[in-house]
Amino acid sequence: MHEHEPASDATVVSVRAMDIATALALMALAIIVMLECVEIGFGWSEAEGPQAGFFPFIVCAALAFASLINALQAALFPTEDQHGDFVSIPGLGRVALVVAPLAAYIFAIGYVGIYVASALFIAIFMMAFGKIPLVKSLAVGVGVPLALFFMFERWFLVPLPKGPLEAMLGY
Amino acid sequence: MIAGSRGNGGACVEEISSLMQGFAVALTPFNLLLMAIGITLGVIIGVLPGLGGANGVAILLPLTFSMSPTSAIIMLSCIYWGALFGGAITSVLFNIPGEPWSVATTFDGHPMARQGRADEALVAAFTSSFVGAFVAVLMITFMAPIVARFALQFGPAEFFAVFFLTFASFIGMSKGSPFKVIAAMCLGFALGAVGLDKMTGTLRLTFGHDELLSGFDFLIAVIGLFGIGEILTSIEDGLKFQGAHAKMRLSSVLTTWRKLLPYWATSIRSCLVGCWMGITPGGATPASFMAYGLAKRFSPNGKNFGKGEIEGVIAPETAAHAAGTSALLPMITLGIPGSPTAAVLLGGLMIWGLQPGPMLFVEQKEFVWGLIASMYLGNIAGLIIVLTCVPLFASILRIPFAIIAPVILVVCAIGAYTVHNSMFDVWMMLVFGIIGYIFNKLEYPLAPLVLAIVLGDKAEEGFRQALLSSQGDLSIFFSNWLVGSIMGLGIVLLTWPLISGLFAMLTRRNATKLADSGAAGE
Description:
Chain A has helices at about 5-10, 15-40, 55-75, 90-130, 135-155, 165-170, and strands at about 10-15, 45, 50, 85-90. By secondary structure, chain A is mainly α. In chain B, helix 5 (about 105-115) packs antiparallel against helix 6 (about 120-150).
């Protein structure tokens, strides 16, 4: 029996806990903004009428209030759905497998340019995620950025970040 | 009121002649080509998971910077029509709603496909979409000039009242928790407030970061929340497509059209629901559900709904398109978009140097009527393209997700970068993507969040200018019948969840009281 337990209990976090955490995070954000609004002035000035912090202050007061109710609702009167899982472990793994390479991709754009980074990202993603053969992955990985290159740099004249490879080729 | 007092007949003739000029503007070979490209791209966007009308248009917006505003809006609005059509293909064939407004189409569309009537369901969906859109465009043609003329008299208080009504209706018409709507909306307002305060020139909420000087661009939010967020949701489920095949023959198109005729009453009702929900920003999604529900209730075959009843395809598709199209009416006349996609188009107008709002009808006649004419032409072109190319579009979904997903992510990143040529925006896109994923799962609505980022500045401006002119007296928002009734309607909508809750409680109590007194009498 014991070896089956981890699979059936594969809960990372419940919807209810996530609801409470999100509401608290929004409430914290609202309070930070309200404090900032107090600093820049949220009252009435003779020359300008309502000051710059006036509107964000009201809005964040509403955000804090609504989040308080959302947190209390999830904590005290959870619905049937809120007892369910927010995400399963394999599901979370799949999401992480997209977010991490995506972050690495965005990081790489600054160094090798968007076209080379895109080629690598597409090819590696296809091989790792879809178990697609190397040749096919490379073909799509090179083909798509090439098409994008002609579309943006040539036809629509929208310059995108370029790296050493493009510089070598004279762009 | 002077302009409004003119005879209706005269006004109609004027609109028709303006529309004819609009057709002359829209009917150039270049614009027709753009229309075809726009529709095709739009259908592809509507079919692909992770790309929808709003973020599809947002990503392609930078490509139009070098075009004339008229050509640009023709292409972008055609992408929107295409996306509206495309949602139906995935709903019917794959039981996957490509767009939220096509969820109701899956109820009867997919059972029809499983019974081997996919072609019938698709023809019914496309034709109904076309009818809904066409009625909405007719409505825009004759209503828009009247609304614009009327809105020319609006002052800051009236504009704020309309904004208030817009956002109140999100709360009043929400299906889930109204407090989640408020939270999402206020988060949007707060994000929209970051940066330079246009009225006083004060910097606010930047917390010392130079990147935040110009604030958060809603286009980045749209790409992240809708694009990346949806990809993450799809990936988590380990998406696999299993679909029905569709072949489209001319004979089946004609026989289906003949079958559609008896359902004219459902069509008219769904058009009305759609137009109403589109103008008041209820949006296409609730409109499609409402029309489906009404059709189920009024149809003699109501109990067969959900098992492959053609009426169950006609009703939601007609309403969704009518709503999606009418959402452009408040956008061009008041500068207040009725849907996230309309908001992106509005952002486009500003980038091309046009100021949306009632003055557009006076200053940019050619642009406005070119746009309205292109709505007629775009929908006709759309119907022809989708009817002829269904197998082609359906085959897109047979490409493995492992290929589609990274390409969409790359396209989203490029789209986010090109908005301001800034890498910071690409990082923000990732952050918004994660927020979108979490909000999606917790049922925080994304549409009011996006609209709040877009409209926050203007709503705030109206509010502050009105208060400035009244020296801080809040009664300015109720100072005449016009602003007072808009505000009143807004307050009713805002408190609607409360009112309907109380009402339900009262009727229940009355019922028990009656039962009690009945028992006492015996």
